[in-house]
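Ticket #428: bound-state structure for uridine-5'-diphosphate-xylopyranose.
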Amino acid sequence: MKIAMVGVGYVGLTTAAALASWGHQVACVNHDAKKIAQLRTGQVPFFEPGLSQLVSENTKANRLSFHTRLTTALQDAELVFLAVQTPMDESGQANLSFLRQAAGEVAATLTRPAIIVNKSTAPPGTSRLIQEIIAQSLHPCPVVVNPEFLREGSAIEDIMHPDRVVVGGRDQEAVNKVASLYEHLDTTIVKTDPESAELIKYAANAFLATKISFINAIARLCDQIGADVEDVSLGLGLDQRIGPAFLRAGLGYGGSCFPKDLSGLLHWAKGLGYSFDLLKAVQEINTGQITYVFTGIRAMVGANLKGKRLALLGLAFKPNTDDIRESPALRLAQLLHSEGAELAGYDPQAMVQVAAAAPYIKLCPDVETACTDAEAVLLLTAWPEFVRLDLNELAKVVKAKIFIDTRNVYDPAVVRAQGWRYWSVGRP
Ligand code: UDX
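RESOLUTION: The complex was predicted; output attached.
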């Protein structure tokens, strides 16, 4: 099929590359000429394992192309995907201005009928708004909602092997055509109405965030009684009705999706007259987790952090990404900085982003430099390279052998046996 993709962020670009790899002709469009020029040479403007290769391969095979002009991208397009950002505005609601603008431009540019497919995460009812905007086009264009569930860091794997595909729309022919893109995948395709499709996406993110806050609350109770949250999590997750995923206690969730979408769902529900108090509690626990870990650090390092050098390992919001949006590691760093701590940090991918967002962190080229003279080592993001640190080697450069493992990566007994004082979340 001939497909246009409006937006080249995580969702837009990964989806476009995947669709091209399945044999479709995909034309991506973005106003940013510099970004488009980079993409034409296979350079992806953010770190996502495997994506650059997939983009290059499909560009070379003439299945994937990049444009700055919508007119070129829309030429002959049977499907027009909208994958633009829907950031959180100051009040916490989803800001739909980029989506409105994209839909408006598409409506004004279309020269033939096409199916409009929305992939941007937005509150239920947004497809109606898109439909109204698209109605200004001279051509009949059904709107279909096709949410994306990919995770940063494993985007390609997620899109190639999805747990399910959701397609929502009122025009059955259009729904079937969009669903046919995914029919070769070994997965369930949920065909539904547009509002249900939109709500599935919001509900999925809210539910996953709820699991994380739940286990973090349990972790705090574990600390009170000397229980081990990792064992509790294992015992919980083995119940097939619960499942093991997203039960890792730690520093809480961050990123470009969970905080924004929870807030968007809360506001949307409020607009319907429903106060979604469960989600408010999820947010509160997540915010409080930073303070909780901060208290743990003070208990280990001393209440007065002024002038104390702390090593921060990992600053991205999770491993395998250079994304620092809503990063719990940076929220904790901000708190430590406000208490006068001297921060030395290292992240395998997010250094440029951290330099711009948190100039008070002295960035170091590697783990050893960050840990040199540190009064405590804080593991904040569980990058694979931090999982097997040589603690005996690190012991030679640190000032004090204190290890704060906010992602519960290490075995407490093993670290303590090497002479370190060790603190993790919800474990004795
Ligand atoms: C999420 C959803 O998983 C994805 O389906 C959706 O499309 C976009 O939002 P992403 O934000 O990329 O994906 O990351 P994810 O792997 O879900 O992690 C989100 C946050 O939760 C990270 O900060 C991570 O460290 C944290 N997390 C995750 C935990 O603290 N504990 C867990 O058990 C799992």
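RESOLUTION NOTES: The domain at 283-424 is CATH 3.40.50.720 (Rossmann fold).
TICKET STATUS: resolved
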